[in-house]
């Protein structure tokens, strides 16, 4: 049969019949060879006898069939297996290598801007990543030596063209392997990301290490998932060569980074108070608060500022929840957490998906996850540890994506929608983080943080941002800077979390980034 006939779909079934006929002929030849070796035994006795000949014949036939089927599967369906493709790209030196001809699908942002694409060149198809350091953590990379990560790994089957289920599909795959005329093509992958906003977020972070996450509360669509420093997927070999880089460019700080959230966690504690009907005041004296003389006193930030200026801090006195949130009183929330106790604290943490990573997308090739609230189970007698965690300090850790999700739940009547990266993935409720009543009560309190509290420097009547600053102390130098923002405050359509590692006060480093990004989103018609 001429090679040209293999490209004709009507002729391809003939090839399959020929393969099956070849298998039968090979088995017949094997039987004849065995009979020639044992001429004294008739075929019937050889097949039914009790000696080792029968077992040997069956074993040989079985092994032959297994090898043939495995070889056929490996060759004809290898296009759909990342392991096979990587093996072929690395070790196959043929002039025509099917693995080098696979044109994987493109990856596009929500507006149709192409972020990743494959380009046919003289001897192979090459993968290109536009603005690689900006989108690298999201899309990942695919390399014959180093494997695949991110969406390039998790959505590999889709990008490679899917799995053949029909007989005609198997024929198509076979023709693509045996000929050079038809290049296999994958499916495009559309994301929820807004490429322009992603670039703006990375530019706002600049040379600083940090992360920005922005999503829509109503459907969980991720518009920004930025992490700096980034890496270029087209230069992954060089990046992996410097894997010990202290800047950790391969770490996706947005989803996998875990940090003490600092005062942004007071949003959760305020929700806890509202869930339990809190409507009183707590005394916040200048000397601060501690659960035992063995532990250092927890004080408000004004105490340290007054000491730096050589003045005396007089304390907040008796204040309510709104004032405590606007002024970010450590003493208030430490007392609040200890007052409600371990059981109430852990019950709410469990509703927030604590210690359970959230799956954004999954497939047979892996899962795309984000880290959530990370906290240990304290001894019931450890009241000081509980006080520290109530401030977002101590043993409590959180990812920027989790903080954004908490803010999104506040903006969506307490319902947290599963964060999603794929445009065609249907919205899904992850859980009821807070009651609708609690969420409705929290929004004006968070708006007051921006109009008259620690974040008043970013207030803009046109944007109407609600939010909470955070300054998280840690053992490795300057404090981390946080900000959680929602806009517009009355009915949020955007939730954003910003982290700047060692950025200092949340109002100074993180909050201005959030405002600038929300402003850019408004220009793009996303703030309704």
UniProtKB/TrEMBL annotation:
Bilayer-spanning residue ranges: 12-34, 55-74
GO biological-process terms attached to the record: cell wall organization
Gene Ontology cellular-component annotations: plasma membrane
SUPFAM superfamilies attached to this UniProt entry: beta-lactamase/transpeptidase-like, Penicillin binding protein dimerisation domain
Pfam families the record matches: PBP_dimer_2, Transpeptidase
Protein name: Peptidoglycan glycosyltransferase
Matching Gene3D superfamilies: DD-peptidase/beta-lactamase superfamily, Penicillin-binding protein 2a (Domain 2)
Any one GO molecular function term: peptidoglycan L,D-transpeptidase activity
Native species: Marichromatium purpuratum 984
Ranges for domain Penicillin-binding protein transpeptidase: 210-519
Keywords noted in UniProt: Membrane, Transferase, Transmembrane, Transmembrane helix
Domain Penicillin binding protein A dimerisation: 104-163
Higher taxonomy: Bacteria, Pseudomonadati, Pseudomonadota, Gammaproteobacteria, Chromatiales
